[in-house]
Automatic annotation (TrEMBL):
GO cellular component: exocyst
Exocyst complex component EXOC2/Sec5 N-terminal domain span: 133-684
IPT/TIG domain mapped to chain residues: 8-91
Superkingdom in the source lineage: Eukaryota
Transmembrane regions listed in the UniProt entry: none
Role description: Component of the exocyst complex involved in the docking of exocytic vesicles with fusion sites on the plasma membrane.
Protein transport found in the keyword field: yes
Claim: Protein transport is one of the keywords in the record: yes
Keywords: Exocytosis, Protein transport, Transport
Full protein name: Exocyst complex component 2
Ranges in coiled-coil conformation: none
GO biological process, one term: protein transport
A Pfam family this chain is assigned to: Sec5
Length: 705
């Protein structure tokens, strides 16, 4: 057994007020399953079913009838749901009744006047309003004095045209002797007269038809007489006099009714203007509404209103509509410029960029706003990278002078290498720093980390914006229907090479800026002015170069996680290889210098075993060297072992042998030393400088170690 449907429920009506026969739209729930299911519709108690047009289960269109109630509910009755209810009401407006001589802003039809006399064979003028016998029966004047009637009916009158007319006075005065049957006939005559009032102006024409015929016959006889006499055009003749009389009568009539007819024309124009304003108030109010919604930031509302106005009035030929719609187009043009300006502003979030692109596509903005945004973002990222260099070169960043080799700065740098930052897309590559970090870290190291932060902070959103541009996800449903998505995909395919060049330019700029700070000799002479300028800065040790390698590797890993093609990241690979080789050579050179200064630090205090601090200091130099070499010698995915390069291997071996020779020479130059100390240090040096020992060091940093 099927479940009964819910009763109809009216939740809205538009408009909510109006005069009789106003067309309204009723909205609600369960308003019927079809036209046949709708069996009842009443508004303010009046049955409107005859004018009802069933549109859907939630919409009915009808006209409001002349209901008795000024305000009432809207009740819908269906076969399936029964008698319904309403949560809204409709207000019926009733026009005021205005007299013939009252001034009014609308035209009032005058009362139809027709002959009330018994002799109906002759028409009368509409100004003859007082009939002699309105009851249509014989008049029997009574003999009651007028003074007695006034005493009996104080303040009243027997004149039926008076405002204080008394029917009893009139009957006593004019029909005192009439029988009851005659009075019934009089009542029937009054009903007939009332019925004739509704016949309109045609009744007046019928009543005076004989007069019109007589007048036509008279005019024809006059015309015939004039033709026979030949006096039709003689000045002063009867025809001329008659024409003058008729012209004066026409002028008099025009003068009498000119004011009334002028008021009627003016009222018609005003009424038509009001109807147009009411019917099309959406269009007339649209420019002001657009301005208000723009100030509030409700761009979606503006776009919806514009689409509606464009569909209704975009191709109109009405001058007033064309003028207002042109103003709407002017406001929309200003909105397009405002949105494009906001789109190209930097910095900006990816969410805002997508939102402004969608707005511009829905407004059918000229050009390709999405590509304009991508181009602007590309230029801004390059400018940020260049500004980062200028910031450090101009000395706005606080740095330190040359590092003290005896201090703890190298150990602090080595300690930071053990902390690996959790790298996220768009995050920072920096590890937590102590409060004194900026005052102890060289500016080149700060610059590389800052530059990497800029690239990793901006490039992911730049890449996501391009992906959204390629797959067409920047546009709304309106854009999909208008073909914006397909157009965007087509443009993206044509501009793939341009975007690839943008990524290449960013990665090349990153590499050149780092080369200018660390490897200026690898840049062409023409690019040193743009990317160099670090000659007066601190010379970096192997420990700081290790930190930089770690930062550049993390930057490369972050870019790889964005699925950027490897061929675009090859320049970073090449930079990493050169940085590793440079770090290896600098570390070995600095270690040589450290070993040279060991003799100056020797205090020749002998411990319990009879050995001075010289061997342990030498060993400490070697340990620091190996720790500094761990990062550059480590082999990440896609990298090669720098020690497998013949030139690097030869240079590294020569430097290590040189370190050992320097240490031996240092021992030989000392004249006051014990034999045991000489033998111990000599044996240690010979052991570290042997080829087998060097091979062991190399194998110690192999990927399988």
């Amino acid at each position: 057994m099927s479940r009964a449907r819910q009763p109809p429920l009216v939740t809205g009506i538009s408009p909510k007020e109006g005069a009789a026969w106003t067309k309204v739209t009723i909205r609600g729930e369960n308003l019927g399953t079809g036209p046949a299911d709708l069996i009842g519709l009443s508004i303010c108690g009046h049955n409107c079913l005859l004018t009802a047009e069933w549109m859907s289960a939630s919409k009915i269109v009808c006209r409001v009838g002349p209901a008795k109630d000024d305000k009432g509910e809207i009740i819908v009755t269906t076969k399936s749901g029964g008698l319904g209810t309403s949560t809204v009401s409709f207000k019926l407006l009733r026009p005021e009744r205005i007299g013939i001589l009252d001034q009014s802003a609308v035209w009032v039809d005058e009362m139809n006047y027709y002959d009330m006399r018994t002799d109906r064979n002759k028409g009368i003028s509409p100004l003859s309003l007082r009939p002699s016998n309105p009851l249509g029966i014989d008049i029997d004047k009574g003999k009651i004095p007028q003074s007695d009637m006034e005493l009996t009916f104080p303040g009243m009158s027997g004149d039926f045209t008076s405002e204080n007319f008394s029917a009893t006075w009139y009957l006593i005065e004019n029909h005192a002797g009439s029988s009851f049957e005659q009075l019934k006939i009089a009542a029937s005559n009054l009903k007939k007269q009332a019925t004739k009032k509704n016949e309109g102006s045609l009744a007046y024409v019928k009543g005076g038809l004989s007069t019109f015929f007589e007048a036509q016959d008279a005019l024809a006889a006059i015309h015939q007489r004039l033709e026979s006499d030949g006096t039709e055009r003689v000045e002063g003749s009867m025809t001329q006099r008659l024409e003058n009389i008729l012209n004066r009568a026409s002028d008099t009539a025009d003068t009498l009714f000119q004011e009334v007819l002028g008021r009627k024309d003016k009222a018609d124009s005003t009424r038509n203007a009001l109807n147009v304003l009411q019917r099309f108030k959406f269009l007339f109010n649209l420019p002001l509404n657009i301005e208000r919604n723009i100030q509030k930031g409700d761009y979606d509302v503006v776009i919806n209103d514009y689409e509606k106005a464009k569909s209704l009035f975009g191709n109109t030929e009405v001058p007033v509509f064309k003028k207002v719609y042109a103003e709407v187009e002017t406001r929309i043009g200003a909105l397009r410029s405002l949105l494009l300006e906001k789109l190209l502003q930097t910095p900006s979030t990816l969410h805002d960029q997508k939102r402004y692109i969608r707005y511009l596509s829905d407004l059918h903005a000229p050009g390709d706003p999405a590509w304009q945004c991508i181009y602007a973002q590309h230029k801004w990222i390059l400018q940020l990278m260049q500004n980062c260099r200028e910031e450090f070169i101009s000395g706005q960043r606080v740095g330190v002078g040359a590092l003290d080799l005896e201090g703890d700065t190298r150990l602090l740098a080595l300690g930071r290498l053990s902390h690996t930052a959790s790298l996220k897309r768009g995050g920072s590559l920096r590890t937590p720093r102590p409060s004194t970090w900026r005052f102890e870290t060289p500016q080149q190291v700060q610059f590389v980390e800052k530059l990497s932060d800029v690239v990793i902070g901006q490039l992911p959103n730049f890449w996501k914006l391009w992906i959204s541009y390629v797959n067409g996800s920047l546009f709304s449903e309106t854009g999909e229907k208008s073909g914006q998505v397909e157009k965007s995909k087509k443009n993206a395919r044509q501009r793939q090479n341009d975007f690839k060049k943008m990524i290449e330019e960013i990665t090349n700029r990153l590499v050149k800026l780092i080369r200018g700070a660390l490897l200026p000799t690898t840049l062409p002479q023409g690019e040193l002015n743009l990317f160099g300028g670090w000659e007066n800065k601190t010379e970096l040790t192997g420990a700081w170069l290790t930190q930089i390698i770690h930062t550049v590797r993390a930057c490369h890993d972050a870019l790889s996680s964005m699925e950027i093609p490897n061929d675009l990241l090859q320049v970073i690979h090449d930079l990493l290889l050169e940085l590793r080789v440079h770090c290896l050579m600098v570390t070995l050179l600095h270690t040589t210098e450290d070993v040279k200064r060991l003799a100056e630090k020797e205090d020749w205090v002998v411990d319990n075993e009879g050995i001075t601090a010289l061997p342990s200091q030498f060993e400490q130099c070697m340990v620091q060297m190996l720790q500094s070499l761990k990062e550059p010698l480590e082999i990440k995915s896609g990298e090669i072992n720098v020690l497998q390069l013949d030139q690097v291997q030869d240079q590294a071996a020569e430097l290590i042998v040189s370190i050992m020779k320097v240490f031996i020479n240092c021992l030989e130059q000392l004249s006051t030393k014990t034999d045991r100390d000489i033998d111990t240090s000599h044996n240690m040096a010979m052991d570290l400088s042997s080829p087998d020992r060097f091979t062991g060091i190399q194998e110690g940093f192999s990927p399988t170690s």
